[in-house]
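Weekly puzzle thread! Below is a chain. First person to post its structure in token form gets bragging rights.
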Amino acid sequence: MSFRERRNRLRELLAQRCLDALVVSNPSNRFYLSGFELHDVQFNESSGTLVICRSGRDYLLTDSRYEEAAGALWNGSEEELVIYRRNYIDCLNTILGKCGSRIGFESRCVTAWQAAHMKSLRCLEACNGLVEKLRVHKDADEVAALKKSFALNHAMLNWVPGVLEEGMTEKELAWKIECYFREHGASELAFPSIVAFGGNAALPHAIPSDKKLTANTGVLLDVGCRVDSYCSDQTRSFWFGDRESDFFCLTRDLVAKAQEAVLRHMEPGLPLSELAWKAQHIFEDAGVASHFTHGLGHGVGLDTHEPPSFSIHSQGTLEPGMTVTVEPGLYYPDKLGIRLEVTVLVEEDGVLVL
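Winning reply:
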């Protein structure tokens, strides 16, 4: 699907909300609609902003650093590239003056200062989630990119047991994983790798440390890469050594049982919360629910974490085109943590594990 086609789909949502335009500030939403600049890695500046008009006229505002790159993408008869030299807000307000009276903006991605200065000239309405409503259903090109990203992730996870060595630190393994991804076609990591040995795995978002790998210990890897702009995200927990401990086996088998209970019942139309309760009930029946400390999953695409949220508190249902993780886990401080994560593509008649 072309970027223009995506913007036209957004225009339909603008019409439903009676909005004349939407100011798009979220970097991933901007990329989804234009192909321009997926990341804004510096928090104190932005690569640019899109203004999508219901009339069919669209604007890309950016500064002179990106003029050539933006011009290569944004040069159609209904697309206007605006290069601001100094005052971004003044430039944006000038554009908004051409767009109508009801303007939506992504309030989650705009500072209070920016909103105040825009609102001084225009009547703005907080309007979050419109682009995400489109992004949640992946098109054929997105699915193809996701499959490539997950294929590389699977290859890395098959490779990694062969490089494990006693005395290796978590940091050293994290670096080997990053090198593997980049040397085999990834543009970058999808997120900083979580590499945890032994008791460190009880931290769901453990940061790789100087802790050394010892014989007969658990290993947790939560890793992902970005290929063709799309992320993968997978978690594996396994044993390093000759004989798995009884506690490790018991915990791993219980987590696997919870994951399988969800995967076995996933199909379009089912409430996300109902599916999440299938894992929750298994942990409750085993008396370990207090050790499951996070939601069951989340969407994956241009971002590692994107809608839908998947937990016992979720609203909405599984829908074709969604890509959702299923990642139950149990965590015992200073002892071990086990999480098993796969990502599924929801299809018309079931789900496909990526």
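Puzzle host: Confirmed. Bonus trivia for everyone else. Residues 170 and 297 are 25 Å apart (CA to CA).
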